[in-house]
Sequence to fold (472 residues):
Amino acid sequence: MTSATRDDRPRAVVLLSGGLDSATALAVCRRDGFAPCALSVDYGQRHRAELAAARRVAAALGAVRHLVVPLDLSAIGGSALTDPSIDVPKGRDPAEIGSGIPVTYVPARNTVLLALALAWAETLGAFDLYLGVNALDYSGYPDCRPAFLEAFERLANVATAAGVEGRGRFRVHAPLLELSKAEIVRLGTGLGVDYSLTVSCYDADEAGRACGSCDACLLRKKGFAEAGLPDPTRYR
Amino acid sequence: MTSATRDDRPRAVVLLSGGLDSATALAVCRRDGFAPCALSVDYGQRHRAELAAARRVAAALGAVRHLVVPLDLSAIGGSALTDPSIDVPKGRDPAEIGSGIPVTYVPARNTVLLALALAWAETLGAFDLYLGVNALDYSGYPDCRPAFLEAFERLANVATAAGVEGRGRFRVHAPLLELSKAEIVRLGTGLGVDYSLTVSCYDADEAGRACGSCDACLLRKKGFAEAGLPDPTRYR
Fold:
C-alpha cells in the first residue's frame, strides 16, 4: 500500500468534544469500518481546553477530516457550561450525580449538535452519525436517552434530500449507550485510545489539566478505578 | 395602559430570516396572542441584507426580543446560498421552480434552525415555535414538508428537560404551510406587515435591493400580482 491508496471506506460523522466518551466513539467508528469525519462545535463552552484535545484526538485516531464549527450558545444561555453566572457543581457524591437534570445541561444541545452533524453528513454523502452518549448521562440529560436518539434518526430521514430521495438511510450510532464508564475505558483502551489526550473536566485550565472534583472528573476517576486501569488524566 | 404594563402573553420563538414569509409568520404569532421572540441566524448566507431586514421587521412587528446567532454554515458547504462556487439560478420559468431539490437547498437547514429555536425556547420557558415554510417550498425542500415538521415536534418533546418533565408540550407552528404566495401576502397585509421592509432575493445587494430574476424574486413578484396588491419590493 502506498500513501496514494484510495480510501474506499464509507464516511461517517463523529461528534467529537475531546472528552473521554467521544474519543471512544471515534475509535468505535473506525473499528466499524468507516472513514471517520470528526465534527467539533466551539459553542462558547467554558472548557475550551476540550477543543484542543479534540484536535489531538482526531489526529491520533485517524479522522480523515476534522471540522470545527463556531456556534456561540452563550447567547442562548441557560447552562452552567455556557453561562458564567451559573456555578459548576464541585465535590458531589457520585451517587447523586445521576439524579435530576443537572445545571450543566445545555438546552437542546444534542439536538443542535446532531443537526449540524446531519448537515455535514449530507454534504459528505455520509449516512452514519456517531456520538458518545452513555447510560450515565441519560439518567440526567433528556437528550441522551434512547427515545431521543430514535426520534432524531426518524427526523434525519425526512429532513434531508439524501433521505427523501432514498440514496441511503441515516443511522444514529450511540455505541456507548449501555456501557458504564469502566466498560467505556476498557473498550477504548482495547481500540488504542490514548486517554491522556482527552479532557473531560467541566472546569479544565488552559493547559487542559483537570480539576478532579467536578461531576465529569469524579465519574471519570471512578471509571478508571473500576476498570482496574491506571488513570492517565493530567490533574492540576 | 402605561409602558410599565406587564406582558402576560406566553412567549413564542419565531424564526425570522427577514424575508416575506418569516415576517408574515411573526405577524401571525403576534395575532395568536404570543409575545414573539425573534431568532435570526447569521449562517454565512450570501443574502446578508436579509439580516438587516430581520432587524427592521422585528422592531416594526413588535418582537419583544431579537436574537441573532452567528453560525457559519459555509464551512459545511453544499448550497448555492452558502457556497460562492455554486451559482444562484436566474430567470427560470416559475412553473419549473417547484420541481426537484434546488441548488439553493441548504443541507438540513431547517433542522439546524429549529434546533436553535428549541434551545432558546427552553431557556425562555416558551413552548411554541413559529416558522414561515409554505407549500411552494415543500415541493422542493425536504425540510419544509409536513412530515418533517411533525417529526421535529415529536423530537422536541423528548429532547428537552421542559418536554420530558411535562412542563408543557412543544408545538411547531407553520401557519403558511398550505398558503400560496398570494394568500400569504394578503394575510400579512391584513395583519399590518410592511413588505417594503422585507428582503426575499437570493442575490440582494448591500442596500437590500432585489435582483428581480432569481427564484425567490420571481415567486414573490407573482404573489403580489396574483393578490392584486402593489409590489413594494425595492428592485435595483
Observations:
- Chain B has a mean pLDDT of 86.
- Chain B has one domain: 11-227.
- Strands of chain B lie at 11-15, 35-42, 65-70, 128-130, 171-173.
